[in-house]
Amino acid sequence: MRILLANDHGALELKRRISAHLKSRGHEIVDLGVNTEESVDYPDKGAEAAREYLKGGYDLGIVLCGTGIGISIAANKHKGIRCALVHDLFTAEMARAHNDANFLAFGGRVDYPVPVERILDKFLETKYEGGRHARRVGKLDALG
Ligand code: RB5
Q1: pTM above 0.90, yes or no
Q2: Which numbered atom of ligand 1 lies nearest the CA of 73?
Q3: What is the predicted pLDDT for the residue at 144?
Q4: Is 8 touching ligand 1 by the criterion CB < 6 Å?
Q5: Torsion of CA 64, 127, 101, 123, to 10 degrees
Q6: Closest Cα to atom 3, ligand 1: which residue?
Q7: pLDDT tens digit string along 51-64?
Q8: CATH superfamily membership of 2-142
């Protein structure tokens, strides 16, 4: 998969971990995030990631800030982006199976119940169920 990453200064270490994990599984990473602790504004990074993704050629976007909240809100302001702020294995599974999320958000300052790599793997190994969910996802995409 070709996966877009973006982060603010609140998720440097998490970005590095996720990037290394995905590369080790053979995914191609395009990294739009920052690599220093100099403060940047998460709405700018979320918007940059969303605009780049919408140009096409990407399978998934992953956006990271201190909590994952602000940058997920920014990404979701863009029509066609379905960014899921997942926090455990169950929400990762549902984000794929029911919401067909095309973006995931995590927080670099959040304590997750299991490592983020496992949460991410759960999302990647889950299939979108379609069916009744397709109608709902279609309604999501019609908003905004
Ligand atoms: C930056 O300090 C912090 O506000 C940001 O990373 C994020 O947590 C916002 O939602």
Answers
A1: yes
A2: 10
A3: 72
A4: yes
A5: -20
A6: 66
A7: 999 999 999 999 99
A8: Sugar-phosphate isomerase, RpiB/LacA/LacB (3.40.1400.10)
